[in-house]
Design a protein that fits this description.
Blueprint lengths: L1 H7 L4 H84 L1 H6 L2 H19 L26 H4 L1
């Protein structure tokens, strides 16, 4: 538009050329700035994409680690329940046998009976969670926040 306006002006040819040259120079400088901005934006995009890829790798490793730890936890809980059942059977056997009561003092019998009552409920409980794991809502990432969907990993 400026070029058309300059041509319509009726000044000297030399002045018109100078004005046109200045317009071209301003346009060239603007193009250079835009090219530099584009280059910086592409570099920033490349850095962000590399960071995203690194974070995706970390996420994949974290998902795998969570899965491994959950399997370990389930195995440990199953082993705990198995050991509690064994202990309960031993306690019941000791309490039923007449020789067991004779060999044990009254204090030992009362401790065993209280243990038998306490462990019976624990052994029959459907699922028992370890108290060593903090599952409070104060955690930054709760297990409900973690997606175990593997469809993204294939992409």
């Amino acid at each position: 538009e400026q070029g058309l306006q300059l041509l319509e002006l009726g000044g000297s040819v030399e002045e018109d050329y100078i004005r046109i040259a200045r317009c071209f120079e301003a346009t060239r400088q603007r193009c250079c700035r835009l090219e530099q901005d584009g280059r910086r934006a592409r570099e920033q995009l490349a850095r962000v994409e590399a960071e995203r890829a690194a974070l995706e790798v970390k996420l994949k490793h974290a998902r795998n680690q969570v899965e491994v730890e959950m399997k370990k936890r389930h195995r440990a809980e199953a082993e705990l329940e198995k050991q509690e059942r064994k202990l309960q059977l031993v306690l019941e056997l000791l309490m039923r046998e007449p020789w067991g009561n004779e060999a044990l003092s009254r204090e030992q019998c009362s401790v065993l009976s209280s243990l038998a009552g306490r462990h019976l409920g624990a052994a029959l409980a459907p699922v028992r969670r370890s108290s060593a794991v903090d599952e409070s809502c104060q955690s930054l990432l709760s297990h409900s926040d973690i997606s175990y969907d593997r469809t993204e990993d294939d992409v």
